[in-house]
Structure formats: structure tokens, C-alpha cells
Amino acid sequence: MEAEKQIELLKQRTEVFLGEEQLIERIRAGKKLRVKLGVDPTRPDLTFGHMVVFNKLRQFQDLGHQAVLVIGDFTTRIGDPSGRSVARPILTEEEINENAKTYLEQAFKILDPAKTEVRRNSEWFGKMSLLDALQLARQMTVARMLERDDFAKRYAAKTPISIVEFLYPLLQGRDSVELRSDVEIGGTDQLFNNLVGRQLQKDAGMPEQAVLTMPLLVGLDGERKMSKSYGNYIALNDSAKDMFGKVMSVPDATMWVYYELLLEKSPAEIAAMKNEHPMEMKKRLASALTAKFYGEEAGRYEREQFENVFSKKQAREDMPAFAWDALVPAGAPDASLVDLLAATKLFPSKKEIRRLIEQGAVKIGDRKASGVGERLEKAAAAGTVVQAGKRIFVKIL
Q1: Which of 91, 147, 269, 393 might form a disulfide with 319, Cβ 3.0–4.6 angstroms?
Q2: Distance between CA 199 and CA 206 in Å, rounded?
Q3: Which residues bind ATP (predicted)?
């Protein structure tokens, strides 16, 4: 494809695209672009927010370019300060390695492994001496760092900013020098860091990388960006059931953003969809996203199960079932509802179970649980279906 047409396609759905003229020249010269994307393994799961930038990286791959996925196992020890009002918690090396284990498996649900170069930035930072680090620090002033919106706000509010946090953009920028990247992709909150990479390449006498930023995906609350820190996210390794259910929980206005950024629908396609019933379009969205990770059959199945529960008021066909004697002490004729549900191991804590009961979100058969003190008798409980919240169903045998 001609260079100009490639750039026209690549600019779709982006917020910022700097250096496109240089990219056109490189593509015309027959260069396979090295396109860098870095992810820090702060938790074990990637999210649909990552999917936005992975989709763009896959687009570069489909056009014949080289994706370079950087696992920030070294930079995670500092913590990216982007968008933060306080410093990130410090993770141990063991925690970082454990979190990184599933990253590639998740990323390759979207990226083409054959066209992906995977690197860890500990490869070069692990060999860096203190003198090297000081030389790197000389390349940025405090005044320039305070141009960052998040740093400026924290400084004005007298919220502590560590010197180590100042180093993070420099380390991310040094990644670009080490990898000789032609393009760096990130969310809009990464613009400052990406520009630092561009500057460090220039200082090193290298061709500067283009900078391409993508919109930040709104989370399940429909307000803040999707983030593992906020807990408002859908993970790429969520089960098909949870993935479908979480998508169905997003506000109507948010689903159009998901159609655009996750399924890459055009404005014209979305305008036509808005003529359809919102509930139907949300089901199609949830089914399509589930199918993207688990196949068309899974997408159809989860839609059927959702409709059974919420439209036809039926229970899921695949709900877990537990024998009474497996949940309570042997010979016990009755048990508290809280203890019974806790024994299934489907809930994070008894506190969460009590919260659901108090909110009226737990049903025993067709009726709501009477309260946190409710007890069930063995004889009466046999064959009973307990529903907790919107997505958890348990059958007692």
C-alpha cells in the first residue's frame, strides 16, 4: 500500500500523531517500521484499555511492519506516574515476574506472534551503572518535568514527588533509544513520556520516532478511564461469562465508544446502529467482544444465557452445583446463608456476601434473602438455586 494511504489508515481513531511526514519518507524508502508499545506488569491481567493500543499495533502489523512489545519489568519497579496523584506502590521482583507470566498469552489474543518482537527493559537497565543513570538524568531539567500536568498538580498541592518518579519518563524514553523505534504507541496519558523518547533519540543522533497516542477507554462506571487501579475494568483473561456480563453493565453512552475503539467501527456504522434499540446493540457488542476472544459459539452461548436470566427469568444452564454435605459440617441440619455461600469459594469474602444480602441482591429461588442472619435447612434447600448479584448462580444439591 502507498505510504500516504498507510498513514491515512493509521491516523484513524488516534488523538495525536506526530512525525507522520518522516514516516511517509521511511515507508517510501521501503523500511519496515519498528513500532514500540510498552506495558508494565503491575497486575497479572491486561484490560480492554490495553486492547485499544493493541488494535493499533496489530494494524501496523497487518501493513507489514514490526511490532516491538516491551515488557517493563524494570520500569515497573518505579511505577509510571502518568495520571497519578500519588506514587504507585512498590512491587517486588517476584510479584513483577508473576504478573508478567500471562502478559504474552493475553497480548497474542490480538497481536500476531510471528510479527512481534518481545523485549524486557531489564535487558539494558539491568546492566546500567550509577554513572550511566546520572548521565541519563542530565538530559532532562526539573522545569521540563514540571510541565507534566500530573507532576504540576502534585507540586502545587504540595504532594510529594520522588526523584525516582522523575526518572520514569527518561527510562521509557531510553527504551526507544535502545530499540531504535520508528514509532511509539500509547494512550493520551503517555504523550509526555513518548515525547521524551523522541528527544533522547535526537540527542543520540538517531532518527526521531513518530508519536501516536490513542484515546483512553472509559471504564465500566462510564466516568473514569478503565484502570486496574480503579477496579472498573474488563480483563482480557476474564471468562466468557464475566466478559459478556461486564460489557452488558456499561452505560448506554459508553457502548458507542467501545464499538469505535474496541471493534473499530466507523462513525457512519455507529450512526446507523443508533437507530436500533440500545439493549439489542449492547447485546451485539457483548457478543462480538466475547467472540473475539472465545469464538463465535461462545459469543452466541453467552447471549442465550444472558437472555435466559434477564429476559426469561431463568437460571443459567451452566451454573455450578454443590452438594449440601460439601458446604457444611457433616450431619448439620441447617446452616447460615452467609456460611453456605462462603463455602462455595465464589466470593472474595463473607463481607462481600453480607453486602449483597443487605442490598437485596441475593435471591433464594424466587424470593429475596430475608437478611444476613437467614438460615437454610438441608431438607428444604435441596434443588434450590441461589442468585447473588447479576452473575453468580449456585445450585444446592
Answers
A1: 393
A2: 10
A3: 228
Once rounded to an integer, what is the mean pLDDT over residues 316-343?
Answer: 83
Phi-psi region of 277 (alpha: psi -120 to 50; beta: other; left: phi over 0): beta
The mean per-residue pLDDT over the stretch 30-54 comes to 93
- Which of 43-47, 111-115, 238-242: highest mean pLDDT? 111-115
Contact between 288 and 248 under an 8 Å Cβ cutoff? The reply is no
How far apart are alpha carbons 84 and 94 in whole angstroms?
A: 24
Give the three-state DSSP class for 253.
helix
Helix axes 252-261, 278-294, angle to 10 degrees: 40
Contact residues for 373 (Cβ-Cβ < 8 A; gap 6+): 336
- Does 228 belong to an annotated binding site? yes
Task: Give which of 351, 330, 340, 327 is closest to 376, Cα–Cα.
Answer: 340
C-alpha cell at 306: 444472558
Which three three-digit cell numbers place residue 316?
443459567
The residues, ordered by sequence, that sit 6+ positions from 144 with a Cβ below 8 Å of its Cβ are: none
CA 298 to chain centre: 21
Residue 118 burial (CB count, 10 A): 15
Residues composing the chain = 397
Q: For 204-231, what is each residue's pLDDT tens digit?
A: 999 999 999 999 999 999 999 998 778 8
Task: Please state, in angstroms and rounded to a whole number, the distance separating the CA atoms of residues 64 and 56.
Answer: 13
**Cβ proximity of 150 and 81 under 8 Å:** yes
- The reported pTM is 0.77
Cβ neighbours of residue 311 under 8 Å, at least 6 residues apart? none
In degrees rounded to 5, what are phi and psi of residue 223? -125, -60
pLDDT, one tens digit per residue, over 121-164 is 999 999 999 999 999 999 999 998 888 888 888 889 988 888 88
Element (H, E) at 146: none
Q: Are 250 and 258 in contact (CB under 8 A)?
A: yes
Q: Average model confidence (pLDDT) for the chain?
A: 90
Residue 345 parent element (H or E): none
- Percent of the chain exceeding pLDDT 70 equals 95
